[in-house]
């Protein structure tokens, strides 16, 4: 990493910190904002109260009004329904004859923060309804109460209408799975629908409830995700109120939390899709509002059924992948894409390196803290050859520093900088040293570092796992906590984040020392001034990662600590005198070999020749 790159990172950091400080409101502004928010909250509460009163009055008026006997299925219009539960041991579905739909879902194998089975869909904030285009009026299932035709522990059939003219919805919870089959069939509805009514419209709404401790972190990983017919998986913005109508047909649509999702699939593609996601305010108990309007083919004469599925379960990579086999989609739905593993390169590293190691260590029955420790050690062993190569490249440049100093003394003038650099590159070539040898091996390690940044926050196996002072490795640790919400920090101090930043500072110090030993003259002086500014990056990491997963900060702390130990070991086992002797032997062995300049040395030589020719022309 050259000094221009370092300078760029430092300037970016300073701009971000400066802008955050400059844009911070004053105490008077904060007080005024608080008064305005309180006033807005009172107005919103009053408006909500008026809306509720108006709704209750409308319901009372509707109940008192006579029922139109000419309306479709008038005998099944009702405001009440019967609730019952379907169960297969892994999950419970709360069904209701009002709307003939799923109104709630609980996963018995996963607990919320109060120790109860976690609820993915809730009756008070979720709704799934189906609509057909009728001649006189549309048939919307949410307006009717269905009759139960048959009910077992895992399946139920509900009917709207009579034997001669009806819409049936059959739900079947598949054994030992998180998948629900939904089949819609009809009889005698052709005369009630528009002539070209060949679509069933689906309206799906849900509020994604906060399940984990850290609101900001969980909201960042909650998104409305969908898979297009061309095989691409995409999602709406996690941070903005966003509405999108994809051009491509969709294979599935998912209302995704950090660790749990509800996914709607179809045997045919969804068309006419309109998707909406809106972030919710902290303290409301909800992360996002999700809405999806979809359409699927529908046969009104009853000759064909409309088949849907809903997955309601954990975002566990292997569980999702196994459920692909149960899907009714024409192609592999690749539900495992709900576990975001990063861009293609980082996804590949996670899929074929990190995840096999992690799941193998997990299968040994070890605690997650020990699993992350062993994972760190194994990864460091795998990249040790590149680490050693990077260190040895720096060590070679360090032992050659006296020769480089001689070149610097030979060309003290500023106008001789090109000659000095050219001769330096020639010296490195004579001794078989590559100045880039220390950077390239480190670049190989970066994909692993970034891959783990994507893997750990999405790893459901860390959810609720305790280690040392952390009560949940999937969320931040809060051994030190206070009541106020401080600027940039929040209301807690993450010890693992602090340890990670400390090891980062130590590694920065080690790196700066290595670079300082390789530079001469003005370069060394410039680096000496810049090295203090390099410590801004670990400081920024503290503010960035204080709300992050303690498991991620713990891994980065272990990674930084092992890097310090490896550097210490390599320094202790490297004999500078022997290394210099090897370099001299290489120079003597190849001193008669013809060498052709390439790369940076060749470019420097070309620039030097151009500069000399320009000077000659100027003198003339």
Structural account:
- Helix 5 crosses helix 10.
- The chain folds into two domains: 76-340, Beta-galactosidase, Chain A, domain 5; 363-589, no CATH class.
- Strand 5 and strand 6 (139-140) form a beta hairpin.
- It has helices at 3-22, 27-64, 215-220, 317-323, 344-362, 368-382, 384-399, 401-410, 417-430, 440-455, 495-516, 521-534, 536-545, 550-573, 576-589, 599-619; strands at 83-87, 91-96, 101-111, 117-121, 126-132, 139-140, 147-151, 155-161, 166-173, 179-187, 199-209, 223-228, 233-235, 242-244, 250-256, 260-279, 286-297, 306-314, 480-486, 490-493.
- The protein contains 16 helices and 20 strands.
- Mean pLDDT is 81; it is low at 1-5, 19-23, 29-34, 36-45 and 51-70.
- By secondary structure, the protein is of the alpha+beta class.
- Helices cover 43% and strands 24% of the residues.
- The strands form three sheets. Strands 5, 6, 7, 8, 9, 10, 11, 12, 13, 14, 15, 16, 17 and 18 form a 14-stranded antiparallel β-sheet that branches. It has a four-stranded antiparallel β-sheet with strand order 1-2-3-4, with no helix packed on it. The chain has a two-stranded antiparallel ribbon with strand order 19-20.
CATH architecture of the largest domain: Distorted Sandwich
CATH fold label of the largest domain: Beta-galactosidase, Chain A, domain 5
Beta content comes to 15-25%
Mean pLDDT across every amino acid position:
81
Q: What is the C-level CATH assignment of the largest domain?
A: Mainly Beta
Low-confidence stretches: 1-5, 19-23, 29-34, 36-45, 51-70
Please outline the major beta sheet.
14 strands, antiparallel
Total count of domains: 2
* Helix percent band: 40-55%
Distance between the termini: 41 Å
Tell me the overall shape: elongated
Number of strands: 20
Coarse structural class: alpha+beta
Total count of helical runs of at least 4 residues: 16
Q: What radius of gyration results from the CA coordinates? A: 33 Å
């Amino acid at each position: 990493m050259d000094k221009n790159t370092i300078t760029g990172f430092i300037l970016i950091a300073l701009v971000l910190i400066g802008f955050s400080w400059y844009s911070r409101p004053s105490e008077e502004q904060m007080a005024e904002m608080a008064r305005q928010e309180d006033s807005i909250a009172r107005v919103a509460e009053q408006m909500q109260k008026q809306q509720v009163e108006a709704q209750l009055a409308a319901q009372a008026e509707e109940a008192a009004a006579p029922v139109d006997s000419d309306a479709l299925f008038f005998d099944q219009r009702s405001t009440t329904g019967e609730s019952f539960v379907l169960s297969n041991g892994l999950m419970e579905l709360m069904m209701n004859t009002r709307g003939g739909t799923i109104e709630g879902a609980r996963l018995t194998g996963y607990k919320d923060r109060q120790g109860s089975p976690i609820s993915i869909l809730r009756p008070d904030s979720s709704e799934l309804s189906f609509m057909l285009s009728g001649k006189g009026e549309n048939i919307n299932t949410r307006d009717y109460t269905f009759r139960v035709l048959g009910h077992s522990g895992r399946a139920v059939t509900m009917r709207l209408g009579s034997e001669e003219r009806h819409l049936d919805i059959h739900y079947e919870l598949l054994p030992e799975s998180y998948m629900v089959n939904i089949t819609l069939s009809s009889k005698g509805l052709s005369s009630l629908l528009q002539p070209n009514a060949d679509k069933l419209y689906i309206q799906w709404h849900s509020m994604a409830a906060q399940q984990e401790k850290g609101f900001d972190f969980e909201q960042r990983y909650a998104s409305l995700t969908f898979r297009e017919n061309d095989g691409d998986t995409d999602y709406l913005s996690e941070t903005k109120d966003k509405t999108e109508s994809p051009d491509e047909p969709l294979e599935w649509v998912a209302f995704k939390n950090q660790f749990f999702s509800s996914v709607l699939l179809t045997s045919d593609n969804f068309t006419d899709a309109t998707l909406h996601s809106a972030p919710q305010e902290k303290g409301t108990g909800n992360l996002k509002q999700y809405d999806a309007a979809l359409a699927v083919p529908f046969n009104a004469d009853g000759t064909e059924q409309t088949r849907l599925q809903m997955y309601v379960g954990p975002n566990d990579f292997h569980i999702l992948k196994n459920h692909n086999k149960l899907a009714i989609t024409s192609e592999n739905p690749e539900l495992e894409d709900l576990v975001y593993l990063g861009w293609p390169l980082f996804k590949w590293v996670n899929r074929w390196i990190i995840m096999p190691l992690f799941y193998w260590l997990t299968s040994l029955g070890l605690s997650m803290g020990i699993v992350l420790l062993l994972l760190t050690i194994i990864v460091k062993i795998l990249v040790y050859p590149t680490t050693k190569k990077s260190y040895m490249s720096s060590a070679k440049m360090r032992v050659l520093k006296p020769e480089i100093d001689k070149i610097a003394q030979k060309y003290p003038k500023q106008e001789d900088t090109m000659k000095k650099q050219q001769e330096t590159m020639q010296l490195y070539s004579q001794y078989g040293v590559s100045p880039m040898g220390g950077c390239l091996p480190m670049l190989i390690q970066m994909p692993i570092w970034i891959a783990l940044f994507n893997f750990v926050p999405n790893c459901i196996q860390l959810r609720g796992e305790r280690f040392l002072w952390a009560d949940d490795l999937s969320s931040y640790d809060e051994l030190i906590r206070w009541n106020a919400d401080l600027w940039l920090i929040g209301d807690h101090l993450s010890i693992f984040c602090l340890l990670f930043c400390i090891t980062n500072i130590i590694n920065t110090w080690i790196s700066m020392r290595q670079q300082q030993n390789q530079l001469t003259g003005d370069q060394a002086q410039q680096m000496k001034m810049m090295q203090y500014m390099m410590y801004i990056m670990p400081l920024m990491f503290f503010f960035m990662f204080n709300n992050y997963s303690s498991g991620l900060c713990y891994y980065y702390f272990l990674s930084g600590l092992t890097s310090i130990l490896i550097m210490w070991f390599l320094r202790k086992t490297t004999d500078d005198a022997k290394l210099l002797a090897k370099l001299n032997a290489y120079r003597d062995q190849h001193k008669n070999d013809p060498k052709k300049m390439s790369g940076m040395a060749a470019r420097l030589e070309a620039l030097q020749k151009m500069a000399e020719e320009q000077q000659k022309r100027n003198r003339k």
